[in-house]
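re: that chain from earlier
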Amino acid sequence: MIYSSIVSLLIIIYFVKDQFEFSKVTKMRLLFLPIFCLYQFFSKLNINSVHDIVMLIVILIFSIVVGFYQSVNFKIKELSTSKYFFIDDNGKEVNIYQKALYARGGRSYLIGWLLVFLFTLLLNSKFNSDLNFFKFTHELVDEMMKDLAIFMRIRDTNSGWKSWGILGITNIVYLFFIRHKSTKMNQFFKSNTMETIGSKK
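^ sequence. v structure.
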């Protein structure tokens, strides 16, 4: 129990800290993930009553608002790192640099993520008399692990259309707004690669 509690605490600390640090922008996380979530959403969507229609509308509105809010503190920077070098005809060392985008979500992304997590628990009726601190922490850490490791999200077979809908719509709206805020982000998703090569003595 103590060991698992320590591990859970470390995961929570790492996840929160990660939102305030710059990490390399990848199409896998920002493009593939929302598309995958939306695919799961549409494949599992099952509307049988007026209540389901109302829930779908609520999810749509909530996800759009949260997706926009998560982009508020979005920051981006471009870094050049030495990829390799060669010796030219004059015997001089020439470094080849690779440019890549690094971004961070910041406070608004973290708050939005927590809102999505809590709303998903509410929709899945997990806020009940059986919910205690340890079960809540387990749900929280489990969701954080799915966010940190994409393969865990892909292997998720238990989530219903409501959960997939929130994740898919929120992430695609977030992507839309960060592309709108940053010309470099927009170019990154339009081009086949972000890499630009330059040489420096």
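The longest strand covers residues 75-87.
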